[in-house]
Design brief:
Layout lengths: L2 H11 L4 E7 L5 E11 L3 E2 L2 E2 L4 E12 L5 E8 L1 H8 L3
Antiparallel strand pairs: 1-2, 2-5, 3-4, 5-6
């Protein structure tokens, strides 16, 4: 799926999809942290219409920054299947 198609699918599903860092485990230059995305499923995803239910997506990230704290590399980990199952009504 293209980046544009992916954006369109998710843009139609949520009015907003906030993101927050929950806990930071290490310091620079390699930073490991947990995060959460959340939003009310008020739109639609593929053929499934949302019911306004709050959906939470939790994950972990490992990022690398340089001496100026500019992002050099990022790796995000989360359970994509569980999240998509909810959006697809499974």
């Amino acid at each position: 799926m293209s980046k544009e198609k992916s954006y369109e699918l998710f843009d139609n599903a949520f009015e907003s999809f906030s993101w927050e860092v929950l806990e930071v485990y290490t310091s620079s230059p390699v930073i490991v942290f947990s995060w959460r995305h959340w939003g009310k499923f008020t739109g639609s995803y593929k053929d499934n219409k949302g019911d306004g239910k709050l959906i939470n997506l939790y994950g972990y990230a490992i990022i690398e920054v340089n001496e100026n704290f500019k992002l050099c590399k990022s790796m995000m980990y989360f359970n994509r299947k569980a999240f998509l199952d909810i959006l697809e009504g499974n």
